[in-house]
Amino acid sequence: MAKYFAWVSLPIALAVIVGGLAASILTTALLSEIGIRDVWAKAVSRQQATILERVGAHHVAFPEQDMGERIAHLVSGRLLDWVELDPQWVFAKTRPPRELVGVPLGESGLRKRYRVTVVLVKPQGQDAYTHAANDTVLSYGCEIVIAGRPRDVERFVDVQ
């Protein structure tokens, strides 16, 4: 028997269905039928996502798959975090490679060489990130958040 939780505040609804594809499909179809304009659903396969989209889901999430991919990147030991915005764009938290330490970002050639951008910097011992700028100089032990295509980010992280 499927368990579910639904919260409805027209015109937005959130339904969390635990177990049972049929319950997920039925709930999604009913939410769409009553006029919910932004229906989110969870799927475990591409086939399930296709069905949910056909019965009215506007957004389909794959939490198990997404978390599996995220953990796979983290176990490499070089990444502190990995967030995929879409299949072609990620943000990753890591530490800078030696070649970037002590060099202003604008002079590092980072974008040209690796096709990634340092977006945020958190100096060692600090609690907050700051925006990276051309004159930002990275130090050992700091954390950086970089953005780019997954393969470019992976290539950059492998330098370390």
From TrEMBL:
<dbReference type="Pfam" id="PF02080">
    <property type="entry name" value="TrkA_C"/>
</dbReference>
<dbReference type="InterPro" id="IPR036291">
    <property type="entry name" value="NAD(P)-bd_dom_sf"/>
</dbReference>
<dbReference type="GO" id="GO:0006813">
    <property type="term" value="P:potassium ion transport"/>
</dbReference>
<dbReference type="InterPro" id="IPR036721">
    <property type="entry name" value="RCK_C_sf"/>
</dbReference>
<dbReference type="GO" id="GO:0008324">
    <property type="term" value="F:monoatomic cation transmembrane transporter activity"/>
</dbReference>
<dbReference type="InterPro" id="IPR006037">
    <property type="entry name" value="RCK_C"/>
</dbReference>
<feature type="domain" description="RCK C-terminal">
    <location>
        <begin position="77"/>
        <end position="160"/>
    </location>
</feature>
<protein>
    <submittedName>
        <fullName>Trk system potassium uptake protein TrkA</fullName>
    </submittedName>
</protein>
